[in-house]
Amino acid sequence: xxxxxxxxxxxxxxxxxxxxxxxxxxxxxxxxxxxxxxxxxxxxxxxxxxxxxxxxxxxxxxxxxxxxxxxxxxxxxxxxxxxxxxxxxxxxxxxxxxxxxxxxxxxxxxxxxxxxxxxxxxxxxxxxxxxxxxxxxxxxxxxxxxxxxxxxxxxxxxxxxxxxxxxxxxxxxxxxxxxxxxxxxxxxxxxxxxxxxxxxxxxxxxxxxxxxxxxxxxxxxxxxxxxxxxxxxxxxxxxxxxxxxxxxxxxxxxxxxxxxxxxxxxxxxxxxxxxxxxxxxxxxxxxxxxxxxxxxxxxxxxxxxxxxxxxxxxxxxxxxxxxxxxxxxxxxxxxxxxxxxxxxxxxxxxxxxxxxxxxxxxxxxxxxxxxxxxxxxxxxxxxxxxxxxxxxxxxxxxxxxxxxxxxxxxxxxxxxxxxxxxxxxxxxxxxxxxxxxxxxxxxxxxxxxxxxxxxxxxxxxxxxxxxxxxxxxxxxxxxxxxxxxxxxxxxxxxxxxxxxxxxxxxxxxxxxxxxxxxxxxxxxxxxxxxxxxxxxxx
Amino acid sequence: xxxxxxxxxxxxxxxxxxxxxxxxxxxxxxxxxxxxxxxxxxxxxxxxxxxxxxxxxxxxxxxxxxxxxxxxxxxxxxxxxxxxxxxxxxxxxxxxxxxxxxxxxxxxxxxxxxxxxxxxxxxxxxxxxxxxxxxxxxxxxxxxxxxxxxxxxxxxxxxxxxxxxxxxxxxxxxxxxxxxxxxxxxxxxxxxxxxxxxxxxxxxxxxxxxxxxxxxxxxxxxxxxxxxxxxxxxxxxxxxxxxxxxxxxxxxxxxxxxxxxxxxxxxxxxxxxxxxxxxxxxxxxxxxxxxxxxxxxxxxxxxxxxxxxxxxxxxxxxxxxxxxx
Lengths: 538, 325
Fold this sequence. Notes:
The complex is a heterodimer. Chain A is an alpha+beta fold. Chain A has helices at about 5-30, 50, 60-85, 110-120, 150-170, 200-205, 220-225, 240-245, 290-300, 340-350, 365-420, 425-455, 460-495, 495-530; strands spanning about 45, 55-60, 90-95, 100-105, 130-135, 140-145, 180-185, 185-195, 210-215, 235-240, 255, 260-265, 265-275, 280-285, 305-310, 315, 330, 355-365, 425.
């Protein structure tokens, strides 16, 4: 027991010091003392509940991905059949129940039709799996059903794009170090520290920014539109702004041609500007070459007809095409304010979200509340620690002093390990610190009580200390394992702040065994060897 | 130097003599807690019920205009808000529950939060939004499920560990003590109607860990004494073990309570419920390791022979090492 070789002692001190030094930058930054930037700077991150900031959980609408795929499929099938030689005529198209069904009018063309569809249904992935199943019923009815692999792949790629778009939009707001990651199949977890205006961020992320230009179906009568009846091949789209709706027949919606429009996803730039004549805020967009060519074609073929500018399924405006727009740039008007025009510009620049994202969970903590939590937490920790130390020293004398030094080192070591591992300190994490302090003492209590007992039984000092450490270690070990089980489960099943608590607990369990058992034993051994006491006060 | 001794040396309280009445009372309290949870129900927080919890500070007012605020939020038509003061008199939390059928619209809770915040900010010029928790019905269901799974897994996992390290009877005893602790703490939340949220689940998990601490120390001593005093009757042996570890139990519980009380009184208001749950748990857990975990060993017929047989090989080696025959 008294035999602690020099190299072992040196090693223990080295480990302790390394951890304590790693904790220094974090300690100093809490006290607002700068750390020389030339030195490495391991830091404990402050969680959003302490630093202030927002956590948003966004959920993609999975049905929407499926619906869009059906739409795209329908367009591709039509295009292919139209271009086929000879042309394949189809009818009775519907996309209910998640499948696309249609009839090939001439049963003799069924094989040709299948030939045409086949390339559309093979997987884009390397697995060779099919994205769509083709079934033919009653001789000439085609049923195209997306396969599980196809849907998964579509969702995967939609989510990847969505994350990219979300990142661009958050960056455009000028926030620092957002943490954006995918969670499960349909969710994106966003953490933005120190955010001033979460409402603006949510507004921006809520915009899918799917811009479409579609021709207005002028054959539809306002009464039909009001009743929701669209002419064949058209659909009814509501106005975004009720005021705008009033001056266009008072119905609040117009009919537009379903196909033949163009999408506004081929933009190179979008920025807020002013309409020169009315000084109204507008969004100027610039198409890329391909998009510009399509836009020029659409406008030249439809001069003097109105076309609708549709954003996220709502009509912004439906101006008349006075002349072909050939320069590849255009202006979007739609009763904007400067602010909303600017937001739309950001959204358009970052590209459209492939799916709508809904905020299903929000946790925002203002900077004042966070600062208040840190201050109160620190005070509670300080007062609690001092009171506890007084109690322990009063109970165990010299052995209590050892326990207290171990305690302080334990706190520093936890901070150090957290800094090096780059983990996050949350508010429940501070509670975890306080609790770890209380629990770390338990190890020393167990040991010291056992030494007391052994002395009472009449064992000599060295023997009593030795037995005390040996017998107590078993219970300490078992107790810590059970705590690890609880902490690991908390980490696995908990969300943000609770995870922070579990992290402190897990690190604390390991470091506390080191400080409370190993280090104190070394100190006690050194003292016993030096002083050779015949009796101990305990 | 005279040291502080909370428990005098050679204390011998005959705890186990009262095991039957104490067990009866404990079982009654557990039944009562369960009854309370079912009749009064728990005051589910945002995490589990969905809805919003919005913290507002009225920076220019000495006291928050609660009545006016209530009227303003109520006028939005989402239902009546619960408005509570927390911390200083000018700090309040606005709690809204999700209306029926909210699970159909995943964005509803966010829409509600936006409208409430906008209303508060336009109607009260000095309102500063300090915190927003908004959880949709779907997410709250998931949080509820994972929280429950974590609790159950923790209890089972820990009991299995005890079973492996000790004997199956000890595992059953530990599981029972844990059920007791968790039930009583949850019962107290039903009684006081304190908010029950995700933090409380973390508190319960912590409590499970630390209540086990106590159990293990007592069990460890029981095992040791079973090997040492093979002829001692079980009740007496349990009493001896509990008394021998009593000083440690009390000193450790006091240590934990000192730090927890500091956190309760001086700590951030946001984690008050969390700290309160753990503090309660320390009391319940200490009690249960003496009165729940130990007596069950008598009824499950743990004897020194059943134990020693299992460990005889280890025992013999230990004896040989000590140089005894």
